[in-house]
Structure to design on (209 residues):
């Protein structure tokens, strides 16, 4: 596999319960299948529903990479929630970072109770854009519902990931892992979400080009 950077650093971030840890594991499995050396680690926060979760995925053709990505050295950020995406971009984005994320907010309990405020979405998106060399906002949660299950948003974002410039994996690489991980109706829903994510990102990338 040809890597644009070696090691290639990918951060997957979101809220516990969104499936971002599974997404990181699928990415790691696909790249191992392609013969790469991969390190996957979950950091910063417990993975219980509602808490912040971040996974580091580091890939190399030459050596076994350490688990943690240094600050400012993420090449790709995959975000499942805009505020979490911004938090990660502030620490890990660099001059060449490409960010793909779902712009739909997931409001913390304090916001729902009226004791906290959530930043304006336009401001979040604008800052994510400033911190990244390229951004794609993909309505993964909506795509998942269209595919038949809200839990498939993570798979929709993986589809979008394959369309990014310099992405180390193509559709076939990840479709192979999906077929290994799922079966029956769940597999069909995930395949549909994956294809819709690819389509949405392809249109977005064309618009950037």
């Amino acid at each position: 596999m040809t890597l644009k950077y070696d090691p290639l650093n990918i951060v997957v971030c979101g809220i516990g319960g969104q499936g971002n840890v599974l997404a990181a594991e699928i990415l790691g499995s696909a790249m191992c299948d392609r013969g790469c050396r991969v390190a996957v680690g979950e950091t910063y926060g417990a993975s219980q529903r509602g808490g912040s979760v971040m996974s580091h995925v580091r890939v190399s053709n030459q050596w076994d990479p350490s688990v943690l990505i240094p600050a400012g050295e993420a090449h790709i950020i995959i975000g499942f929630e805009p505020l979490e995406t911004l938090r990660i971009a502030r620490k890990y984005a660099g001059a060449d970072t490409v960010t793909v994320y779902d712009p739909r907010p997931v409001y913390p309990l304090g916001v729902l109770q009226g004791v906290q405020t959530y930043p304006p979405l336009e401001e979040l998106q604008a800052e994510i854009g400033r911190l990244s060399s390229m951004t794609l906002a993909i309505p993964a949660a909506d795509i998942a519902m269209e595919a038949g299950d809200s839990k498939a948003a993570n798979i929709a974002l993986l589809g979008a990931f394959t369309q990014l410039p310099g992405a180390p994996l193509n559709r076939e690489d990840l479709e192979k892992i999906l077929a290994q991980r799922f079966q029956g109706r769940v597999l069909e829903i995930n395949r549909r979400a994956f294809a819709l994510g690819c389509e949405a990102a392809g249109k977005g990338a064309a618009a950037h080009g």
The first strand starts at residue 8 and ends at 15. The chain is about 45% helix and 20% strand.
